[in-house]
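name: query_chain
kind: protein
chains: 1
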Amino acid sequence: MVGALSPMDRKLLRDIWRLKSQVIAVAMVIASGVALLIMSLTSGEALHETTAAYYERYRFADVFAVVRRAPEHLMDRIEAIPGVRQAESRIVDIVTVDMADFPEPVTARVVSLPARGQPLLNQIALRDGRLPHRERTDEVVLGERFAEAHGLEIGGSFSALLNGRQREVTVVGVALSPEFIYVLGPGSLLPDDKRFGIIWMNRDALAAAFDMEEAFNDVSLTLVRGVRPEPVIDALDTILDEYGGTGALARERQLSNNFVQNEIEQQDNMAAVLPTIFLGVAAFLTNMIMARLVATEREQIGLFKAFGYSSAAIGWHYMKLVLVIAVLGIAVGFAAGSWLGRFNMQLFAETYQYPFILFRPSPQSYAIAALISIGTAMVGSMTAVRLAVGLPPAEAMRPPAPPVYHRSWFSQTGLARAMDEPTRMILRRLSRGPLAALLSAFGVALSLAVLLLALQWDDAINEMIEENFYRTQHQDATLTLFEAEPERVLNDVAALPGVMKVEGQRGVSARIRHANVSRREAVIGLRQNAELFPMHDVDRGAVPVPGQGVAISRTMADVLKVKRGEKVIVEILEGRRPALEVPVTEVMETYFGTPIYMELGTLSRAMLETPRINTIHVRIDAVQKPDFLQALKETPRLSAINFRTASMEMFRDTIERNIMIFIGFFTIFSCTLSFGVIYNTLRIALAERGRELATLRVLGFRRSEISYILLGEAGILAVAAIPIGVVCGLLLSDYITSQFATELFRIPLLVKESTAAKAALVVLGTVTVCALMVRRRLDRLDLVEVLKTRE
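structure:
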């Protein structure tokens, strides 16, 4: 079969075999870039497709609204709003649950189901069992993760506190819902399936328990295709205002969907940034190999031209070598990227709750990755190939003109004279090829930058934990009331067993506006002397609550395009619903959310009511904690109970598990990158200096000395790359954190010295492995064979 190949194709096979280790090294760098690109594209594609299919199949609503209590006949007016395709009312509340397997009180969001069949909107995906019977008011369907966390199966039972009355309920079904893909309890940062879940119950049972006969407190709408939600939301708010409506939300602002879309956006950002680094380095390495190959094959190029081969044929011959490297990298990258994409979706499914995952990578993702990789490799090798094509036959068959050397100023210094000859050889070579040395060092620096990007996430997450759970929060537990109560409720909580200190705050739903930008956000009313949960700035620590005006997060200030001292309109969506024009007196840096603070007394006066609170922070005696927990289980109207330690452990376990996997992957990718750069640099240096090194051996230099001459260059480049890599890593980390920043959370840019040192050691370790591999080849150098080779 080989005999049937053309002479140039046979030469191509020989070149590939001769350069096989370098070809593999470059192919692995390409494979890393392709794998990252495929992982990001296929994961993003799967998330888009799965979410869209889930929303459509189970009729996820377009608009959501909460109201205190509205009569059922109001639905006729709501359905008549222009653009509304379908509307459905329901009853939703928060209940306290007593689980036999769990000592702490558990809260759950209870959602009504129609008397018969599925709801029209926000249908549930039954995973096991059935829907409740209309006549049996004690039957419930549980969220799947909630049931699993407490080991509840069909037929199991537990006690629920419904509007102050204990009721034993029986589990008849387990389900999921598109409305609760990301199940987050009030005041929580991450899902906690043991402490908060979803319960679906017969509407008649809930109406009787919460005095909602012929009434509702929650409504969902779907819109006619193409209709913008804003006019519908305005009309819906107008209808619900007099019944205690707190402002409708479009689907994009719905809590669960907001988190899901944020995850999809992060996958898109990853696909745009990180693969570019690997493919850019692959282009550089391809150019290195091709430039060396063309330089050593000048005579062969001249002979091919003398025998009548065209410049196009010779150019295509060398481009085929580039294609072989690219195709090998693409093949490995396809396999690795597909596995990583599937694995990434498994991690995603551990946090987000879907009844199915549609991981069906389209050919488009693979085609994009292949075209980008081949195009990058081609562009990288273009200079060397153009040089090969442009050589005239007569010039190609002559050795290249030797470079003109001159004595540098450094060689005349005392420092140079104090150095031994091998060290001067290393420095001379670096000074005579500064561009190649700089590019090699930059390639190693990029590998360090990628690793630093991954490792700094651990520093950032630890900083977020330290800031949110230690510097900002000083309470042991936070109790969220379903409705605001007078401040005297603090005395009732203070009387509970083990309570040492209590503080209250008020959160009210509001719409904040500046110019033509508005956002719906909770305004938090704090007392000036708050200690357990003070107003906190990342850089300045606890800051005083302004007596007048509002304090907002920097993220909210950026959204509203407002500066300190400028005025904003705050429309309170509760009580008498006042609209306030107040100055922004403080702008704070925060990591989570977009908080807005006012002094509690100022907020209460604006609402024309005495101070009321709906959130209570408590510090408790650890010895009496069991009695405190038991008392909470019997306390009605609690919408959430969060323990600071439990929230911190959940945050750390969930985030750090994913972060460690992320760091592991990128450590492998970074080592691949540095290995590809250093190994190719050393192999090319060995090929170029083989005759020189063999001559030195014949002249009496020891193996250790010629190894030092060759490998010392790589050592200098690696050491020089460290500060460049740290700077590049900081710039890359800053870019990534800015791209990943959302209104939900911001990752701080933080790189500890120990983290930078760890990244540098990993890269230096990879360089050492490359050096040992090349040293083995150097030790086996055939002096006679090399010296017979004509330069």
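note: The chain has a mean pLDDT of 83.
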